[in-house]
């Protein structure tokens, strides 16, 4: 079936008529001698290589008839431009993503580092949640809302791409990050309220304890998925900073408070995951995406705009132009 972007043909079987073009070409080739009078001359040497503009234009007349035939066939196929309207009904999910911005997120056990991979995988996750409101919370030694809940996923991904370590006081205030996310969700009327907490360390800062924040989340029916990011053993990570602000890298031990993250998830009916590499992190977000599906009712209304008249116009124009030229300016005298 012949289709173009936003164009459909009601009678596509009309395109079979295009198979007549080769037959019409053969017929024209065998009949062309009957259109011209033969003049016998003793020699054509004086006319060798001579061809007037009028003769050249006359040889193009069959092309106009071919174009007319093709355009009329397209008109017979009845092209329509499809204009769609979507009426989306249903309750989506409100999701707050919490990302750790402590300096340890620059560890090199992920390529190029944990933070870069977390941002990219998080952006891919956002792309899959078309109808959900998603917000972004960041934390290190303190926490704040980087992007409130929004359906404008473009601006959310822009904020996500701009995240970097060092914009907050260093540390790992897991409780502060979770409490900030829950505060943004507590008044939501969404069918489901979800927090995705990603960290690579142990809580060592902030005035809100992680378990207290988890209890608040449970009180407001907020489900928390926790993700521990980092390989096992040692990794190349920041061990300090130079006077110019650059991080000094060295071998450090990977420490993640898995019991705490698991407890937070269990308290809120969520789930704990451990991401030891990029592929594992992608799989975790894919599983969360699968677990947090909601039914969305989409009513599609289609409107059509008839477009055959354009092809009919050009078909008739080519045909009339061919006839006028053949019997006026490019007429042959028998």
Write a compact overview of the structure shown:
The protein has 334 residues and is of the alpha/beta class.
Descriptive overview:
By secondary structure, the chain is of the alpha/beta class. The chain has ten helices and eleven strands. The protein has two domains: 92 residues, no CATH class; 205 residues, Rossmann fold, CATH 3.40.50. The protein has a six-stranded mixed β-sheet, with helices on both faces. Strands 1-2-11 form a three-stranded antiparallel β-sheet. Strands 8-9 form a two-stranded antiparallel sheet. A hairpin with a 5-residue loop joins strand 8 and strand 9. The protein starts with 6 loop residues before the first strand and ends in a 7-residue tail after the last helix.
Show the helix and strand layout.
Blueprint: E1 7-9, H1 20-31, H2 53-58, H3 61-76, E2 79-89, E3 93-100, H4 114-128, E4 133-139, E5 143-150, H5 153-161, H6 174-185, E6 192-199, H7 210-219, E7 222-229, E8 234-241, E9 247-253, H8 258-267, E10 271-275, H9 278-291, E11 297-306, H10 308-327
Parallel strand pairs: 3-4, 3-6, 6-7, 7-10
Antiparallel strand pairs: 1-2, 2-11, 4-5, 8-9
Strand order of the largest sheet: 5-4-3-6-7-10
Number of structural domains: 2
How much helix, percentage-wise, in residues? 25-40%
How far apart lie the N and C ends?
Answer: 46 Å
CATH topology of the largest domain: Rossmann fold
CATH class of the largest domain: Alpha Beta
Largest sheet: 6 strands, mixed
In N-to-C order, the SSE pattern is EHHHEEHEEHHEHEEEHEHEH
């Amino acid at each position: 079936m012949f289709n173009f972007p936003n164009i459909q043909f009601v009678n596509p079987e009309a395109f079979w008529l295009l198979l007549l073009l080769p037959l019409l070409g053969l017929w024209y080739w065998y009949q062309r001698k009957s259109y011209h009078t033969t003049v016998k001359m003793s020699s054509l040497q004086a006319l060798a290589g001579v061809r007037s503009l009028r003769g050249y234009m006359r040889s193009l007349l069959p092309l106009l008839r071919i174009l007319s035939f093709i355009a009329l066939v397209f008109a017979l196929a009845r092209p329509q431009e499809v204009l769609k309207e979507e009426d989306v009904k249903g309750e989506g999910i409100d999701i707050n993503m919490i990302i750790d911005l402590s300096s340890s997120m620059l560890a090199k056990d992920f390529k190029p580092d944990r933070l870069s991979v977390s941002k990219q995988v998080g952006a891919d996750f956002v792309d899959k949640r078309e109808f959900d409101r998603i917000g972004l919370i960041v934390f290190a030694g303190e926490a704040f809302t980087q992007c409130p809940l929004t359906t404008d996923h473009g601006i959310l991904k822009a904020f996500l791409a701009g995240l970097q370590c060092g914009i907050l006081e260093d540390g790992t205030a897991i409780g502060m990050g979770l409490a900030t996310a829950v505060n943004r969700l507590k008044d939501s009327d969404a069918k489901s309220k979800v927090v995705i907490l990603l960290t690579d360390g142990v809580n060592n800062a902030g005035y809100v304890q992680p378990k207290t924040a988890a209890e608040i989340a449970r009180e407001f029916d907020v489900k928390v998925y926790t993700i521990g990011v980092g390989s096992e053993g040692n990794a190349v990570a920041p061990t300090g900073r130079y006077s110019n602000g650059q991080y000094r890298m060295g071998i450090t031990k990977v420490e993640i408070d898995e019991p705490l993250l698991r407890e937070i998830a269990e308290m809120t009916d969520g789930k704990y995951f451990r991401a030891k590499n990029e592929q594992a992190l992608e799989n975790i977000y894919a599983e969360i995406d699968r677990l947090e599906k909601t039914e969305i009712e989409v009513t599609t209304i289609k409107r059509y705009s008839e477009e055959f008249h354009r092809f009919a116009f050009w078909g008739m124009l080519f045909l009339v132009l061919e006839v006028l030229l053949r019997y006026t300016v490019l007429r042959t005298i028998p």
